[in-house]
User: Which sequence fits this backbone?
């Protein structure tokens, strides 16, 4: 009686097919990545974020000194020095919460038209307080309607209590 | 010890050493990031310390014993140390995953996750109809998924995502990168358990079916701990309804589709490698299974947003369809591999039972062959034997099937057990037969 390695061959072929399918998925993922993170887009432009401050929604003004930690009930906003960006640049500023959702935005548009220095975080629908966790603020350069370069970024923490 | 076995054990030891160092680093980071140690830490931490002390004591005693006793003591010391490590990691997991909502919510979440996970394990154990894996080993695999794998990935993913968020444009590109890190780190951390079983527990790891069973068990364990983490977090943010939905999604809808499927793919690759003759083929099979798992996990995390959910009652339908559409194909692949493996097992079971019956050794009779070859007929025979005969016949059938499977694996030169073990099995079968009258 001879051992029959052949009976395993269909399984071996099947698992190699799984490996090939995985490579197709990775290629699709890489293409997706490259389409949203296209190479050769770095201009070296740096935007200046003056800071992240407590924010009064009634007066639409920032309060006090810049901070990196906020209580859940405290509205806050980032202040951008739009003049630090070269004229003619198309830009946008966005806030992302800890789930990666956009929770505040200014733009997109040419930097000359960005009149609002403070970009506040909006409360998520149905909530009375901000979700705790790390919030990301970015000033982005836009090309063909798509963000292609981060000109400045700032992380702040919304405390749990 | 053969040279091949020795090199496998050395590789396993090396892997265990690396994992231990990673876990020590993870513990240190946990310690630095946690402000205070509540009482529940002492509750699990102190037994861990006691177990380490016990392991040291038994380990020291092993030096003074004769070779037979020494091995037993070393085994005990190793077991106690492993238990201590598991308990300690459990302490860390409890902090890291449940600190959001507190111990009460965490306990309720854990209790809610136990029945579905137990059901999942029950199903997984029954996937192998002919040669069931020892439930203790399957539980070890589950514990690895729940405790060790989660502890391994938490910092790796956190650090990777922190680097990505500081380097990339937020949006789909960053999401894809984070999805890749989740797939890579989580599948590596889970799959290494199956790889260690493959390297060390050869006598309990025979083929693709075994690999799928161990892999799915690791995945169920990981899913158990991750669900508790998500439930407590969402409860602290949005209340019990959000936690309840999370429970349904992960413990009911996704129970077999998510982590269980991904790690089963790793297990399938390793299980197929177990029966391949050439080292190159073995490495390729393991790599393909692992890549499949990482890709399946990546696809779910990265492309979930391509299936946006509506509002109202339709959302419920969409949630189910989304899981079916995105994870269903990978689960189907696992099922196909499982069925292929079971067909091969079944075919060889009949062949070896027939040969054993023809040998006239008495362990299997020609009349028993068609009964033993069919799970349904085996059950019928046990039921017909009455309440007392049910278990006795069950033991006899298991031993007969184990003998046939051992013959098959020996024929394929996959066994390291000596030829005498086959004769011992025949002896056991004859003893069981005569004990039953």
Assistant:
């Amino acid at each position: 009686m001879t051992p029959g390695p052949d009976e395993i061959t269909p399984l071996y072929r099947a698992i190699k097919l799984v490996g090939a399918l995985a490579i197709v998925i990775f290629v699709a993922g890489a293409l997706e990545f490259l389409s949203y993170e296209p190479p050769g887009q770095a201009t070296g432009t740096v935007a200046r974020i003056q800071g992240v401050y407590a924010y009064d929604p009634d007066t639409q003004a920032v309060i006090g000194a810049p901070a990196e930690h906020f209580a859940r009930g405290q509205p806050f906003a980032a202040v951008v020095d739009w003049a630090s960006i070269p004229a003619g640049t198309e830009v946008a500023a966005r806030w992302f919460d800890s789930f990666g959702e956009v929770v505040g935005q200014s733009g997109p548009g040419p930097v000359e038209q960005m009149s609002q220095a403070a970009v506040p975080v909006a409360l998520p629908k149905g909530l009375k307080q901000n979700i705790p966790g790390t919030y990301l603020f970015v000033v982005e350069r836009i090309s063909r309607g798509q963000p292609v370069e981060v000109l400045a970024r700032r992380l702040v923490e919304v405390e749990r209590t | 010890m053969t040279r091949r076995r020795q090199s496998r054990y050395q590789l396993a030891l090396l892997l265990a050493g690396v994992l231990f160092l990673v876990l020590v680093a993870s513990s240190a980071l946990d310690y630095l990031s946690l402000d205070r140690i509540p009482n529940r830490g002492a509750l699990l931490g102190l037994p861990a310390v006691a177990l380490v002390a016990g392991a040291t004591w038994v380990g020291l005693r092993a030096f003074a014993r004769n070779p037979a006793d020494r091995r037993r003591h070393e085994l005990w010391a190793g077991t106690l140390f492993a238990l201590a490590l598991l308990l300690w990691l459990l302490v860390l997991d409890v902090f890291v995953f449940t600190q959001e909502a507190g111990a009460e919510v965490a306990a309720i979440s854990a209790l809610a996750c136990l029945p579905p996970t137990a059901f999942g394990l029950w199903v997984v154990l029954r996937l192998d109809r002919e040669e069931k894996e020892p439930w203790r080993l399957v539980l070890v695999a589950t514990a690895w998924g729940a405790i060790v794998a989660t502890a391994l990935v938490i910092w790796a993913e956190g650090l990777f995502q922190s680097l990505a968020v500081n380097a990339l444009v937020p949006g789909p590109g960053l999401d894809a990168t984070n999805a890749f890190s989740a797939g890579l780190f989580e599948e590596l951390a889970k799959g290494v358990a199956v790889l260690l079983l493959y390297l060390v527990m050869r006598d309990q790891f025979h083929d693709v079916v075994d690999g799928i069973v161990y892999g799915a068990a690791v995945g169920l364990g990981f899913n158990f701990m991750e669900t508790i983490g998500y439930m407590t977090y969402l409860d602290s943010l949005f209340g019990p309804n959000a936690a309840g939905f999370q429970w349904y999604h992960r413990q009911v809808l996704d129970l077999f589709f998510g982590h269980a499927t991904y790690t089963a793919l790793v297990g399938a690759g390793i299980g197929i490698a177990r029966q391949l003759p050439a080292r190159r083929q073995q490495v390729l099979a393991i790599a393909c299974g692992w890549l499949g798992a990482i890709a399946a996990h990546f696809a779910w995390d990265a492309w979930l947003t391509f299936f946006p959910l509506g509002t109202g009652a339709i959302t419920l339908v969409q949630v189910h369809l989304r899981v079916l559409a995105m994870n269903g194909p990978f689960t189907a692949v696992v099922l196909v591999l499982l069925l292929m493996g079971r067909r091969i097992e079944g075919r060889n079971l009949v062949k070896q039972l027939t040969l054993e019956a023809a040998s006239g050794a008495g362990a299997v009779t020609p009349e028993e062959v068609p009964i033993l070859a069919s799970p349904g007929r085996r059950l019928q025979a046990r039921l017909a034997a009455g309440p007392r005969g049910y278990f006795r016949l069950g033991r006899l059938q298991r031993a007969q099937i184990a003998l046939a499977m051992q013959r098959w694996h020996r024929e394929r030169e996959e066994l390291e057990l000596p030829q005498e073990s086959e004769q011992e099995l025949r002896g056991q079968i004859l003893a069981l037969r005569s004990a039953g009258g």
Summary: The CA atoms of residues 276 and 282 of chain B lie 6 Å apart.
